[in-house]
Amino acid sequence: MGYSIDALYVGQTASSAKTISETDVYLFAGITGDFNPMHVNEEFARQTQFKGRIVHGMLSVGLLSGLMAMQLPGPGSIYLGQEIKFLKPVRIGDTITSTATVIEIRREKNIVKLETVCTNQNGEIVITGIATTFIQSGTP
Question: What is the reported pTM?
C-alpha cells in the first residue's frame, strides 16, 4: 500500500520517466476514441503550427496518474482532481519525466495536494499543475 496520511510531509517528492512510443499514441487513441489527426496523421499534422504529430495531452497527464497511484501517495490513494497547464507539445520519442511534490496536507480530511510537473528529455517543462488526492483511512 501507499503512504499513510501521517507518513507524508510537505516537500516530499517522487519521479518516474517514460519514453512515449508510436504504439502508446495509437493505443491511447483506440482506448479513448481520440483519433484527432494532430496525433495520428503525419501529413495533416505537418501542415500545422506544430510541423508534425504531437502526443495527446491527456496521455502525458496519465503519466502523472501512474506516478501518484504507484509512488506518491501510492496504492490506495484516490485521484480527486487536477489543474493542468500544457506549456509545450510532447512528441513521439520524447522521454517525459513526471514529478509530484507534496505541497499541502489536510490531515483532518485525508487530502493531499501535489505540485505536478512533466519535463522532456531536454529539461523543458511541458506540463504543470496541481493534483488533489484522497488517502484512504487505514492505508499503512
Answer: 0.92
